[in-house]
Amino acid sequence: MPRPDSAPALVLASSSPRRRDLLAQLGIEPARIQSPDINETPAKGERPRPYAERMAREKALAVSRADGECVLAGDTTVAAGRRIFPPAESPDDVRRFLTLLSGRRHDVFSAVALIDADGQVRVRVAASVVRFKRLHPDEIDAYAESGEGVGKAAGYAIQGRASAFVPFLSGSYTGVVGLPLYETRALLLTAGFPV
Question: Which regions span the lipid bilayer (predicted)?
Answer without folding.
Answer: none
